[in-house]
Amino acid sequence: MQNQYIGVIGSGDDVPEEVLQDAEEIGTLIAKAGAALVCGGRFGIMEAACRGAKATGGLTIGILPGLSREAGNPYVDVLIPTGLGYALRNFITVRSSDAIIMLHGEVGTLSEAVLAYQHGKPLVALRCSGGWARRLETTALENGAHLDSRGLMQIHYADNPSEAVRLALRLIGTVPEPSKI
Amino acid sequence: MQNQYIGVIGSGDDVPEEVLQDAEEIGTLIAKAGAALVCGGRFGIMEAACRGAKATGGLTIGILPGLSREAGNPYVDVLIPTGLGYALRNFITVRSSDAIIMLHGEVGTLSEAVLAYQHGKPLVALRCSGGWARRLETTALENGAHLDSRGLMQIHYADNPSEAVRLALRLIGTVPEPSKI
Amino acid sequence: MQNQYIGVIGSGDDVPEEVLQDAEEIGTLIAKAGAALVCGGRFGIMEAACRGAKATGGLTIGILPGLSREAGNPYVDVLIPTGLGYALRNFITVRSSDAIIMLHGEVGTLSEAVLAYQHGKPLVALRCSGGWARRLETTALENGAHLDSRGLMQIHYADNPSEAVRLALRLIGTVPEPSKI
Amino acid sequence: MQNQYIGVIGSGDDVPEEVLQDAEEIGTLIAKAGAALVCGGRFGIMEAACRGAKATGGLTIGILPGLSREAGNPYVDVLIPTGLGYALRNFITVRSSDAIIMLHGEVGTLSEAVLAYQHGKPLVALRCSGGWARRLETTALENGAHLDSRGLMQIHYADNPSEAVRLALRLIGTVPEPSKI
């Protein structure tokens, strides 16, 4: 049985090449750590992370918005076709992860980061990857640490893939009791 | 049959008195316009808006996170107890609204604003109310107009309750075809 | 605020005329009792029940499977377009009802009856209406009283609209604590 | 990547020993066929099927109703804790399966069979296992073949584990276009 599940969230398209390389390295490091990789099962950052994990013999899980497994990328072992659309798919992705690493990201990724915060799932943003992963640090409260004034949870930032994975693994197990989820 | 449904989203607690007054006025104006008011059915901004709407003979709808209707505020006509938790309740609230007015707001309100943007629901933030309604303008892209670089939808800002309700009513019917929801 | 919500479930098409008349009478009686009527918002039995309720000044609520309110029947006051498909729409319909009256019915109605049983919502089937409302009595356990050997809840049967509504109203408030929902 | 996913549905407790043995054999045969096994992740029939699959080196997936992976049985490789309750968990289990084998079963299993029928997922009931797997044949329409008069899909019955798995595998790919789901 898999003991640790790390979610990787980020854009499905228009991702700079160097961010895809970081995503692939993050996938590799997750697999090396013996954790399963959870993602939205599609392309861009999700595919790069899965490719890295599979090259290292890891287990990859993709939660799809539509009904067809054919929409998944070729590096996913377990594809869950929810048919519930993007918003609810993102919800299941977050619920299935013990900690989450965020790269780049448009509004879908932002919604997953918000869900992670609401559910008290440890969240690590790779700040150099741009998009909402970077915007979060400059816009959320107290230097990006919180998404609301109640300070439910602390958001963390990393400067490179290995720091991101190390942080995510260390933070697993720190999840508080669910209250306002 | 009700033809227009305007959602009002905002914090359930720790809301400044003047924001509650604005929420109540927004509720009044929605009812005067003959639109139904949709909200999360609970307290703070939701209760104030419902109180305003009911005092003017309007119809109010509350989508609850829990299983018991007793968690609703006393000014809601129709209470839907989803029992699905906060995140999915917020999803149903947004789906049930044709346009959304946002006041103040912590992370739950932010999640509804993000869902509104993802679903192409016109979103009007009362900028003077603080919280994420204000933070959105200073942090989202292009002066708060968009939540991602794809510019799926334009977020609007209002300076007072009547401008907010006028804008929301005017924007109904401008919803694009759902694509990435 | 509405205090009692009675769900009416049944087929959307191919319904015998006399069953539609029974559905309309059930809607009338629900409205006369001062309860709100909850349904799937569409045609056939749902529309007939809503027409009866509206003719008597009642409040009607329709939970829709799709994204557009235009798919609702003209006698619904409050339309909730979930966009979640039939199965999850049925789930919200059941959650929104305090007791449920079942007429006729194909597999969608059966799924709602099963959900009602799982959630401990009092269920009254109009046995003369045919479909699953009748089949349930001949096929479920112990003369149709239970849907499983654990006997979580008792299913009730009525011979005419007034008996059905009387039973449903009397059973509200008997819901046990949710356990296996 | 896993190409075929077979769901195994059945009771979590009070299951006769010979039905557990059949469930284990079904798990073994699914794994031997190279398909992934999907289930509700808990005990009784689900655990027996997973044990059989794991003993043969198969891949097992469990969709949990609660938030904690600790509620899963020890033979599940991938645990998805939805936190959405039994009804929605059952929905995701069915969506994640290409064909479904049903053993024994109380009302939760019935709800999954109904969902399978609604979604056009091939359904094979092991008739000798009792519970709803058997009751379906005697109560559904046309000798148990259909759950409604529209005859959306044909339900199949098997007399032993190998016939059940053979049938399920053969039926994959026969799923019609989703219409009323």
Quick take:
Four copies of one chain form a homotetramer. Chain A contains seven helices and seven strands.
Explain what the structure shows:
The structure is a homotetramer of 181-residue chains. By secondary structure, chain A is an alpha/beta fold. In chain A, 41% of the residues lie in helices and 18% in strands. Chain A contains seven helices and seven strands. Chain A has helices at residues 17-32, 45-55, 85-95, 107-118, 131-139, 141-144, 161-171, and strands at 5-10, 36-39, 60-64, 78-81, 99-103, 123-126, 155-158. A seven-stranded parallel sheet of chain A has the order 4-3-2-1-5-6-7, sandwiched between helices. Chain A is globular, with a radius of gyration of 15 Å. The model of chain A is unreliable at 176-181 (pLDDT under 50). Chains in contact: A-B, A-C, A-D, B-C, B-D, C-D.
Could you give the distance between the termini of chain A? Answer: 27 Å
Biggest pleated-sheet summary of chain A: 7 strands, parallel
E-strand count of chain A: 7
Percent of sequence in beta strands of chain A: 15-25%
Parts with pLDDT < 50 across at least 5 consecutive residues of chain A: 176-181
Tertiary shape of chain A:
globular
Most extensive contact: A-B, 28 and 28 residues
Secondary structure class of chain A reads alpha/beta
Number of helices of chain A: 7
Mean pLDDT across every amino acid position of chain A: 93
**Percent helix of chain A:** 40-55%
Oligomer category: homotetramer
Strand order in the sheet with the most strands of chain A: 4-3-2-1-5-6-7
Radius of gyration of chain A: 15 Å
- What is the H/E string of chain A? EHEHEEHEHEHHEH
